[in-house]
Design brief:
four-stranded parallel β-sheet, 180 residues, alpha/beta, elongated
């Protein structure tokens, strides 16, 4: 993309989930099904009503604590190592978007900004080279805030040293225009 197309842009920010890494939660449910007496719908209901997801995504609990609480909540008969493989087995790399990241990195600073937890991020970071082209990762579990809170965008802009008009955010969800 020629620089003239985005004349004032200095920073391009990519979301991770369903932008760089498409995912399917059903993979987790399918793989956990053999390790609990609960149906997939009961697992989803208990998980969503527990508040564990936001606590984990915001870094208020560790990966091991999340596992212990989820194991109890869902009556899982699985160890932590197997759980990590199941928990992280829902991702693929979007090769076209990864290629875009590599090409844009030649001309712009590239950040990742994502609502994610420590287990997912550690897995993705260790496995995929696309992070070689990302200058910084702004992650909900490290910052203690999610994308629904404009503070996480302010953190990204401050770390990049740019104004909002100098940044583009690429996400899979319409979150509205952030007034930062």
């Amino acid at each position: 993309m020629p620089r003239s197309c985005l004349p004032s842009v200095r920073l391009v920010i990519f979301d991770l989930g369903n932008v760089l890494f498409p995912f399917d939660h059903r993979r987790i449910l399918f793989r956990l099904k053999g390790h609990t007496k609960l149906s997939p719908i009961r697992m989803v209901f208990r998980y969503l009503s527990s508040g564990l997801g936001p606590a984990f995504d915001e870094g208020r609990i560790t990966g091991r604590d999340f596992f212990v609480k989820l194991k109890e909540l869902l009556g899982l008969s699985i160890d932590f190592d197997k759980f990590k493989r199941v928990w992280n087995g829902m991702f693929n790399l979007d090769k076209a978007t990864a290629g875009l990241v590599r090409r844009l990195h030649r001309r712009y600073r590239i950040f990742a900004l994502s609502d994610t937890n420590e287990l997912h991020f550690k897995y993705l970071f260790a496995r995929y080279r696309v992070f070689d082209y990302i200058d910084e990762c702004i992650l909900s579990f490290r910052e203690g805030v999610r994308k629904s809170d404009k503070r996480i965008f302010k953190i990204a802009l401050r770390r990049a040293g740019v104004r909002p008009s100098e940044a583009v955010f690429i996400d899979d969800l319409e979150i509205g225009r952030a007034h930062v």
